[in-house]
Design a protein that fits this description.
Blueprint (H helix, E strand, L loop, with lengths): L12 H5 L13 H12 L10 E7 L5 H7 L2 H7 L4 E8 L1 E2 L8 E2 L3 H18 L3 E5 L4 H8 L5 E10 L9 H6 L22
Helix pairs in contact: 2-5, 3-6
Amino acid sequence: MTVDRQTEHPVDPLFTNRWSPRAYSGEPIDDATLMRLFEAARWAPSASNLQPWRFLYGKAGTAAWQPIFNSLVPFNQSWAAKASVLIAVVSRVRSTPPGKTEKVDNVWHAFDAGAAWQNLALQASLLGWYAHGMGGFDNAALRQALNVPEDYAIHAVVAVGKLGDKAQLPEALQQREGPSPRQPLSAMVAEGGFSFEA
């Protein structure tokens, strides 16, 4: 699907074609395709090359799906039920940097996990799949269900699937289903210092 988004400066369509739908078809994702998404994420940059991100997934129709799905808030369950796979994005908050012998706080773990998730989302888009990141989930329930250690932060749950018919969504969501615009570049870029509206 080609998306008609207007940029202020020329960029590759890879960036403007990526968006986060809620209407999924329910089509299964094969392991080879799914691993391509994770392979793209694997090559994200990371501070000191610590690669703190981890992905825990459950494909639709498997036992691994249900604990992730159950952790979603009801609103997200209402549309994510048709996704092909749900992925929990987590990252290690303490790591042993190169040349050190003890773990220290990795203040960049979330930044690095965000880069890895973006690689996954862009690879999905290139392959004709769609990824939608969600913050609406029960963190404690997901941590317990997936046995996530305390020294890992849980950032998001990502739904991946093929684009479906938006008519299957509740009416209020149908009106919102489509690529969203962005704030102007001037609202997020400044030379020399912070000059944005508070």
